[in-house]
Amino acid sequence: MEAQENVITPEVVALSLPFEEYLTLVREAVAQGKSTGLDQSAFLAQLNQDNLVIMERTFQTPLRPDLVDMVKALPRPQLWLVLTEGWCGDAAVHLPVLAALAQQSEQVELRTLLRTEHPAVMDAYLTNGGKSIPKLIALDAQTLQPLGSWGPRPQVLQEFVLDLKKQELPLLEFIKKSLQHSEENNGVALQAELLDLLPQWIKASLG
């Protein structure tokens, strides 16, 4: 398992926000010309503003019926904690899909944590040594036992981004192309990966 079981405590969960409250936080940051979290700059504020539009649109992404059936039939309740920030494009694309999916099942509760405000949790769930987000951490809702994790993006999109990095594009152009590719995928790759991951998480929950 990627993290020690005591990294996510009831106290940490108590500080997390449901998706709708996170969305309100992002909207408030836009209204104030800021971004979410502890890191602030005009650049991050602009990304936060751009991503709000993406999040509100992506929340309408069609969900796979077989995936919806799977989350509805979970044998034990799961808590999905997602490390995120308003300035993160991949979070803007994928977090709303996760939230919409969680809404389909009484067995799943999705909550969000700001990466900059929870460094200990982020450090426990690094991706190749980096603090990449979004990062979904699946937990047994009753025991907070970690079941598995996902993120920051589906493998097919990750490979595209790695190839894009080799082109050494200007940062804004890199962000635009990466985000466009993720948006065009429209949650398809994410949902396909969850279909593979959920049975593993179910097995872990039943121990």
Automatic annotation (TrEMBL):
This is Thioredoxin family protein. InterPro entries: Thioredoxin-like_sf. Pfam families: Thioredoxin_9 (PF14595). SUPFAM superfamilies: Thioredoxin-like. It comes from the Bacteria.
